[in-house]
Amino acid sequence: MSTDKSSSHISQRYDDELSGVKSQLFEMGGIVEKQVKDAIQSLLDIDSQIAEHVVKDDTRINDMEVAVDEDCALILARRQPAASDLRLVLTIIKTTTDLERIGDEARKIANQAIMLAEEGPAPSGYVEIRHIGHSVSTMLSQALDSLVRQDVNLALEVAKKDKAVDLEYGTAVREMMTYMMEDPRSISRVMGIMWSLRALERIGDHARNIAEHVIYLVKGDDVRHVGIKQMAKAISDDD
Amino acid sequence: MSTDKSSSHISQRYDDELSGVKSQLFEMGGIVEKQVKDAIQSLLDIDSQIAEHVVKDDTRINDMEVAVDEDCALILARRQPAASDLRLVLTIIKTTTDLERIGDEARKIANQAIMLAEEGPAPSGYVEIRHIGHSVSTMLSQALDSLVRQDVNLALEVAKKDKAVDLEYGTAVREMMTYMMEDPRSISRVMGIMWSLRALERIGDHARNIAEHVIYLVKGDDVRHVGIKQMAKAISDDD
Asked: Is A100 part of a structural domain of the chain?
């Protein structure tokens, strides 16, 4: 009896540790989502105050990355998880890296917003920022949702959206280059938009990475570097 | 007796698995190093043939990332490593991600080289590419060396160099912008140099990440997001 009780205590604590690290990750995801939205807003509204908040809050995300990783290492050392628990811990470790990088990209956008608030708005590119910004914000929310709900179909949607964003990004960059040629005095400001578009495109890539981790978590298949077709096949296979 | 023998067999196999995954990682590191050097060379020599090789070979790096990660997951599941072995496996998992991203950046440089081979060379920026390219190639070699030799002092050197590269990158970008303003017809070609400089700067960041993983591996301290001073303190503390 007493052994059962103690082992159920241990497994209860183990479950608590796993849920603890999961909720930390989701909290981190929520903060990163807000950072991305605020960074885009600060650029569109030429609001350097919001932008400065984004820059400042990036350290919080960095701290969370380190804390979550440390907890994951402790779980691996103490609990020696196997099968789906192990995949969960590995997924969390990979996802914190992507979330931290998304935070970095949000900070870069905020820095461009601060620059543009000083130099005056760029003469062009805000429609593209708004549009691509909206797409990648949605991708990030969906990627995090797909993780919370372990929803591989939603994860696949994110990957599909990433392809569309890459195309839109390419078009936007070409338009900005034409603009710079026509009005060379605006170059440094248009470059602020260019770097921000680049950061948004990278955020899309990281959201896709998170979606790929979700498919690994649920299906056990590593779908990084495979095409959408192969990905769709992996999630439709019954295990 | 037979138990001893079988457990020593198991531990021998475990050691083999750990060395196996380590040598895979080092092999991957060597390939990535070459990709970076070739990408820079293709840009400087306006050699689209080398550039196309770099683009093609990127899939090899991607495949290696997936293979190493899979082996690491197997070791975690079967061997349940603790202490320094666990840190080694976690370090390898993190390092493959950085190496794969470095490979992506090399591919991006190669793509710009292909574009510039078609459109004609940029009128400016090759000195900066050569200089920063040399710095980040050295950083990458040193980061990989520091991992092989578990040399935290060398890892610290890499982090210091990254700060210098970031400053040089900032200067180079400002110069390129001035150049574009003076000669707007060259904008699309100078942008090819800009994106390449950006990719080099990112390679420097990833080399620094690898150096940080080495300090974690050897010292057990997570030195991501801390300054150089704090890093130096972590490596000088006796454990």
From this structure: yes
Q: Which domain holds residue B113?
A: 8-236
What is chain A's pLDDT, residue by residue, as a tens digit (239 residues)? 444 566 777 789 999 999 999 999 999 999 999 999 999 999 999 999 999 999 999 999 999 999 999 999 999 999 999 999 999 999 999 999 999 999 999 999 999 999 999 999 999 999 999 999 999 999 999 999 999 999 999 999 999 999 999 999 999 999 999 999 999 999 999 999 999 999 999 999 999 999 999 999 999 999 999 999 999 999 997 65
How many other CB atoms are found less than 10 A from the CB of residue A222?
Answer: 18
How far, rounded to the nearest angstrom, does the alpha carbon of residue A206 sit from its chain's CA centroid? 5
A53 touches chain B (CB under 8 A): no
Q: What token pair was written down for B54?
A: 């770099």
Rg of chain A on CA atoms, in Å? 20
* Chain B residues closer than 8 Å to A80 by CB: 80
Confirm whether A126 is domain-assigned: yes
Q: Does residue B127 lie within any of the structural domains?
A: yes
pTM: 0.95
Query: Would you say residue B1 lies in a domain?
Result: no
Across the interface, do A90 and B82 touch by the CB < 8 Å criterion?
Answer: no
Nearest to B21 by CA among B102, B103, B100, B85: B85
Judging contacts by C-beta atoms under 8 Å, the chain B residues touching residue A97 are 94, 97
- Give the count of domains, chain A: 1
Q: A105: closest CA among A169, A40, A9, A170?
A: A40
Closest CA to B226 of B200, B208, B199, B206: B208
Q: What is the CATH number of the domain that holds A28?
A: 1.20.58.220
**Looking at the partner chain, which of A63, A65, A73 has a beta carbon nearest the beta carbon of B86?**
A73
A121-141 b/e with 16+ CB inside 10 Å = b?
bbebbeebbeebbebbbbbbb
pLDDT in tens, B80-114: 999 999 999 999 999 999 999 999 999 999 999 99
Task: Compare CB distances from B177 to A59, A83, A187 and report the shortest one's residue.
Answer: A187
> Helices B2-44 and B48-79 meet at what angle, rounded to 10?
160
Segments in chain A forming alpha helices (H): 2-44, 48-79, 83-119, 126-148, 152-182, 187-219, 228-236
Q: What is the C-alpha to C-alpha distance for residues B35 and B101, in angstroms, rounded to an integer?
A: 12
CA distance B75 to B12: 13
Query: B196 in helix, strand or coil?
Result: helix
For this complex, say whether ipTM is above 0.85. Answer: yes
